[in-house]
Amino acid sequence: MEVGSVIHELGHIVGLHHEHSRKDRNKYIKVNFKNVRENAMLNFMMMEGVETLAEYDVGSIMHYGTYDFSRNSEPTIEVRDQALSFLAGNRRGLSYYDIKSLSKAYRCTVQCPYRLSCENGGFLHSLKGNTDCFCKCPDGLAGNTCNRIDPRAMSGPHGFCGGVISLSLSWFDRAFIHSPRFPFNYPRRQKCLWLLKGPTGSVIKLSFIYFDIKADSNKCIHWLEVRSNLVGQPGPRYCGRWNGGIIVSKDQHNNMMVVKFDSTEHVGYATTGFAAIASAIVTPDTF
After folding, report:
1. In a domain, 90, yes or no
2. Binding residues for Zn(2+)
């Protein structure tokens, strides 16, 4: 049995339920019962009355993959946001939101002498369940309240690259983000990370005006990751060459988006990179 499958079963022992059985699952996935093996039907049933302690996470260790327990080689689960389908069936380890659920379920912070106000998707946590409490931050964020970028996420020969950008709803308030040295070739061994934030109730719109990031025939050598669903959840990685394109934040952390550039792989040559305009809008229907 794979290590990830063992962690999944241990998750049941410590009280975690199947993520795809949550009562709010229909907003994020569709279960195709006609494709599910008869002896596995119970594992796909929605569980009423189970408390949800964190955001719905397709990448949870407790979430089935899209073809798990299929009776006919057809998908048993369809992720409504197809860009996140690659997350389903994670067996690499606990996700960020699995840890958040366990921390709340076991009241790990009940003895905290003070209540930090964690920002940007962070949550109060304690590794030992005692008074040593801190804000656990999504990957790439840091600070006492997760209010800044981790320097390790924006390092390289170009120096620091990225930052926290707060946007208003004004049409004139837009941010131009781009790979280092654009419009010239970006340096290799570079990391950049931007956290884009809008007012509560807004969504972030990222409009690409140029995109050319190193790739070979079947994989990304360098890449741009866009977390448009949950800031603590890995996003799809983009590479290659394409003209234009728009990505809009959605669902659970809709007024935030994390954009991460990585050219650390020291293979071949670098390309021109990317350039995009970020803005905050009231609703996706306004563009």
Report:
1. yes
2. 8, 12, 18
Mean pLDDT of the 201-207 span: 95
The answer to whether the Cα torsion of 149, 180, 270, 233 is positive or negative is positive
Decide if 9 is catalytic.
yes
Torsion, Cα of 174, 180, 184, 190 (10° steps): -150
- The pLDDT value given to residue 253: 67
How many whole angstroms separate alpha carbon 167 and alpha carbon 153?
21
What does 95-161 look like in DSSP terms, one character per residue?
A: -HHHHHHHHHHTTTTTT-SS-----TT-EEE-SSSSS--EEE--TTEESTTS-EE-GGGS-STT---
- Percent of the chain predicted with pLDDT > 70: 97
**Residues 68, 55: contact at Cβ < 8 Å?**
no
Candidate list 9, 48, 51, 74, residue with the active-site label = 9
Residues 169, 268 within the same domain: yes
Last residue of a domain, one of 99, 129, 158: 99
Q: Which domain holds residue 209?
A: 149-282
Per-residue pLDDT reduced to its tens digit, 253-273: 689 999 999 999 877 788 999
CATH of the domain at 9: 3.40.390.10
Amino acid identity for residue 199 in this structure: P
DSSP symbol at 30: E
Whole-prediction pTM: 0.92
Residue 277 neighbours by CB distance under 10 Å: 15
Domain assignment of residue 112, yes or no: no
